[in-house]
Amino acid sequence: MKRKTLKVATFNLNGIRPRLPHLLRWLGREAPDVVCLQELKAEHAAFPRAELESAGYGALWQGQRSWNGVAILGRDVEPVEIRRALPGDDSDVQGRYLEAAVHGLMVCCLYLPNGNPQPGPKFDYKLDWFNRLIRHARAWADSEHPVVLAGDFNVVPTDADIYDPKSWRRDALLQPESRDRYQRLLDQGWTDALLQQHPEPRPFTFWDYFRRHWERDAGLRIDHLLLNAVLAPRLKDAGVDRWVRALAKPSDHAPAWIQLDRSAPRRRRSRER
Questions:
Q1: Which of 82, 194, 202, 238 could be cross-linked to 258 through a Cys-Cys bond (beta carbons 3.0 to 4.6 Å apart)?
Q2: Where are the domains of the chain?
Q3: What is the pLDDT of residues 131-164, one digit of tens each?
Q4: Is 111 a catalytic residue?
Q5: Residues 111, 161, 192, 223: which is the catalytic one?
Q6: Which of 33, 57, 97, 152 is catalytic?
């Protein structure tokens, strides 16, 4: 029987090959309908397409050796490719962006640059990439189609989205320029789904491997799912599958997800005068 809701998730794997057993276990247990993956850290030909197909998922991916890499998965469907790179810089060959149509949604999967150390060329690249994203996302924000913009944004939007900002003040994820660009994106009309469902306390999605941050729940919220104005009214629930982060040799991220009403809200007919 077809479910009444649609589950969309984003998960930074920090390496798809070493984390493939975790990914397959999570897919089998949680059965998301649409998945955005980041940090594949594998060449295009090394993507585990056969294993994912056996698990019931079609895939579109952009691999890159050792770094980056993104993918979009569809449960029982093949994602239909729309775009394979973020426009605005033909010289940028980093695998950080994909767009596809999946289960009636326009899905934009992204892995925004980390930007450390800052200041420096890596932070400049982060801000330039963010500017390109803002320009491109405008059309999707205004689209009449339901659109989700999901992935690892490498931005902690506010101090409420981190366990303790003091030791992170110089990190690129907390810089005013990074936060300003995230807010400029939201100002286009995007809804931050996790924040909408969990304003307090805000759920963390990332715990680094140092100083027992996972054990102390010293986390950050940097993985986001943004919904355009057409899709936002269909939001039913959102959360983080923290159990995945507790597995042996895990990614430093946990999957974040949303539940959407499959059917679009009916438009009210204007009364006849």
A1: 238
A2: 5-261
A3: 999 999 999 999 999 999 999 999 999 999 999 9
A4: yes
A5: 111
A6: 152
